[in-house]
Amino acid sequence: MTKQKFDGYAAQYDAWFMENENLFRSELRLLRRALGEIEGRRVLSVGCGSGLFESMIDCSGIEGIEPSRDMGTIAEKRGVHLLGYLAIEEAQLERNAYDVIYLNGSSSYMEDLPRAFSICRRALKKGGRFISLDVPKESAFGFMYLLAKNVGSFRHPDLIDVMPGLPYPLELCSAGVWHSTEEKIGVLRALGFHDFTFYQTLLRNPMYTNEEAEEVVEGYRSGGYVAIIAEK
Ligand SMILES: C[S@@+](CC[C@H](N)C(=O)[O-])C[C@H]1O[C@@H](n2cnc3c(N)ncnc32)[C@H](O)[C@@H]1O
User: Fold this and answer.
1) Is any atom of ligand 1 closer than 6 Å to the C-beta of 202?
2) Which terminal Cβ of the chain has fewer Cβ within 10 Å, N or C?
3) CA 141 to chain centre
4) d(CA 28, CA 11)
5) Where are the beta strands (DSSP E) in the chain?
6) CA distance 124 to 116
7) What is the model's pLDDT at position 156?
8) Which stretch, 138-152, 160-174, 214-228, has highest mean pLDDT?
9) What is the pLDDT of residues 161-181, one digit of tens each?
10) Does residue 1 carry a pLDDT above 80?
11) Domain positions in the chain
12) CB 230 within 8 A of CB 100
C-alpha cells in the first residue's frame, strides 16, 4: 500500500484545529456558507480527511473519498459514508449523480487540477455545484507556507515574532502544492463551469487569526481561506 501524504498525521491534524479553535470556527463558517442547504441533496466530500468538519454539520447524508487510511477511518467513525480510500484521480464516480461536490482543503494537495476537477465535473448533475475551499497561494497564509516549505522550517529568522503561536504542521505545509485562486478559476472556466460565487474568511494576518472567529465575506482577494463555488 502506498503511503499517502496524510498517513501518520491524522491525530496531529485534528489536534491542530482543536488548538486553533477560532481559526477552525472561521473555516467552518465558510464551509457552512458555501454548502448552503444540503438536506435531500446528494453530496460528495473529496478528500474528506478525518471528517472533522463534517462532524460539525449533519454528515449522515454526505459521501466521501479519502486516500489516507488513517484519516478515512476516523471520518467513517464520525459518520461520513466513505466510498473508498481513494484519490479523486482513481475514483470511479457515478456520472451526473451529485448535486454538490466539495473539496475542503484538499486541492492544495493535488498536482493536476484539470484532471481532478474534470472528474468532479463528470460526476456532477447539470446545474450541480462544485465547491473548492482552500488557502490561496497569494494569501498571507500561502506566502508563509511557501516560505516554510522552501526553507524547510518555520524557524527562519524572517519569521521570528511574526508567526502564529501554533503553525500548521511543517510536513503538511511541505507536502502542499499551493495553488492561486486565479489558477483554479482558470481551470474551472476551461472545463465549462459557470456562475461563479466567492466567499472568504481569515482576513486577519496569520499571527492574529486565532484571536477570535471571523465573519465570512464575499470575494476572494483578501482571505486566507477562500471558497470558490461554480455551477456545471
Ligand atoms: C487539508 S486536508 C483536508 C481534510 C478535510 N477535508 C478537512 O477539511 O479537514 C487535505 C485532504 O486531502 C486529501 N487528499 C490529498 N490528495 C488527494 C487527492 N488526490 N484526492 C482526494 N483527496 C486528496 C488528503 O489525504 C487530506 O485528507
Assistant:
1) no
2) N
3) 14
4) 19
5) 43-46, 62-65, 81-84, 98-104, 124-134, 194-201, 217-218, 225-231
6) 13
7) 85
8) 214-228
9) 999 988 888 999 999 999 999
10) no
11) 10-134+180-231
12) no
Q: Among 6, 35, 46, 103, which residue has the most ligand 1 atoms within 8 Å of its CB, making it the best to mutate? A: 6
**Which cell is 166 given?**
501554533
What are residue 231's phi and psi, to 5 degrees?
Answer: -100, 150
**Whether residue 52 has its Cβ less than 6 Å from ligand 1:** yes
What is the CATH architecture assignment of 10-134+180-231? 3-Layer(aba) Sandwich (3.40)
Q: How many helices (H) and strands (E) does the chain have?
A: 7, 8
Could you tell which of 4, 109, 172 is best to mutate to test the pocket of ligand 1, judged by most ligand atoms within 8 Å of the CB? 109
DSSP 165: S
Give the burial string for 54-77 (b: 16+ CB within 10 Å, else e).
bbeeebeebbbbbbbebbbbbbbe
Contact assessment for residue 7 and residue 43, using Cβ atoms and an 8 Å cutoff: no
